[in-house]
Amino acid sequence: MGSATLAAAGATWYPGGVIVLWLAAVVGGFGLALIASQRAVGHARVLIEASRIPPFFVGVTLFAIGTDLPEIANSIVASLSDHGDLNVGDSVGSAATQVTLVLGLLPLLVAPFVAGRRRMGRAGEASIVALLLVALLASDGQLSRVDAALLVSAWLAGSVVIWRGMPPAAEPAMRVPATRPWRHGLAALLMLAGVGAGAGAAVWGLVSIAAEFDVPEFALAFFGAAIGTSLPELVVDVTALRAGARDLALGDILGSTFVDATLSVGIGPLIAPTAVTAGLAVRGSLAAAAAVAVAVTLLSIRRRHDRVSGVALILVWLALYAVVLG
């Protein structure tokens, strides 16, 4: 082998080693964010020990925000570094992933369960409206502080609407014994810092990979990052279903979808307004809204979520590739 060939081989190997480092940053970063978010949720639960809150609402609010911490952290880090496509792609992609892939896997991994029409309908409608709002706000290629404030306000207003439209609780209200709440509050804050650190490493890896292979950041975030940041929902919801807490699991999925479409997209630009790729942001948001509509309609009609509806939702998730990338 000549010196020129050896030089070429060395040139090929060095970038490969760097790519492995970037992939490690993405996997390790999201892994840290996942573990830290689970711990943060666990400590945060103790802070509501004085309240008797229906499990579905706990899922829609506390658990939804807790399991969405990776997306929220990613939104802030991506916006501060002026990578708006990573924020919108991950947030919108996570909304679509949770209501299709994650929800579809649950009856396959655990067991079939009944999905209440009123629970699915109200939260689903709120998510669809929110995703259409994201498409409208992103259509000019910018997410300003005014846009961000609208999205955060939509999350607050939508949470109230979901709460007021909730049917009577099908499961007993939660009550967690209080044991030194201040320690749990401090621990939750430390875990949130871990989520932010993990998201920062993952964003660095994603940006580097996108630049190296000339892949649109939005597409990489919509599919790749969204799977990583949706893992907390899958873990929490499988655990909840195995414990017989159907309302908690369903509330977490629907609440996380709504949080992704509002608070997660808006929190970053509220701090640091960013530019986005309008065409991809609009297409991705509309595709996610359509996915939510299909999931809500399917489960509202069938009511029982089993292997048939589970496979159907996974096929909808696969179809998103053709829609967003086409």
How does this model look, in words?
The chain is mostly helical and 326 residues long. Helices cover 82% and strands 2% of the residues. The protein has eleven helices and four strands. Strands 1-4 form a two-stranded antiparallel ribbon. Strands 2-3 form a two-stranded antiparallel ribbon. Mean pLDDT is 81; it is low at 1-14.
Set out the fold topology.
Layout: H1 3-46, H2 55-67, H3 69-80, H4 84-109, E1 113-114, H5 117-138, E2 142-143, H6 145-164, H7 181-213, H8 217-242, H9 246-271, E3 274-275, H10 278-302, E4 304-305, H11 307-325
Helix pairs in contact: 1-2, 1-7, 1-8, 2-9, 3-4, 3-7, 3-9, 4-8, 4-9, 4-10, 4-11, 5-6, 5-9, 5-10, 6-9, 7-8, 8-9, 10-11
Q: Label the overall shape.
A: globular
Strand percentage: under 5%
Strand order of the largest sheet: 1-4
Main sheet properties = 2 strands, antiparallel
Per DSSP E runs of 2 or more residues, the count of β-strands stands at 4
Please tell me the overall pLDDT.
81
Distance between the termini: 43 Å
* Strand-pairing-aware structural class: mainly alpha
Rg, nearest Å: 20 Å
- The number of helical elements comes to 11
How do the SSEs run, as a string of H and E? HHHHEHEHHHHEHEH
Estimated helix fraction: over 70%
Low-confidence stretches: 1-14
